[in-house]
Here is the input.
Amino acid sequence: MSTVIPNKTFENMIQSAHTLCREIENLDLKNTQPLVSALIRLLYAANNLAQSPINAEDYDLGTCVILPDALNRIPDNMIFQVVFDPLDPQSICATSLRDPLADIYKPLALGLQAIDNEKQKELAVLLEWSQGYKYHWGRHLIDVIRYFLLCPGIEKAGQ
Here is the structure.
């Protein structure tokens, strides 16, 4: 049985991954609007992808990706609270902005590399991205968007 994913769903996801990776690689804390726009676009694309049935072999994207230097320029004091389980008040913890951005960047960059190297791995990468969005980096994506939208003047903190 072949999985049919609308071309637009795949195209939107791959383009959103490219755009977000580029924004993270060129992160400018004095102007976060392009990053926020790319994060929101990825949220939309990944949510559409997650709703598409994908029948592919499991594929390990690996871990060999070099994080962009721009992430290291994020000040240590750019932290926010995240809640892992809303029913457990002990599940609240602080995280730096750097960590969730890195967790989002890694699988996207690895998937883009895999597609560039082996075009036939597209469905497997889509499956990996879909699962990662549902069970890991999708939560970080929402947390980071929330952070930027709820912290006016964030550009001043990055100066």
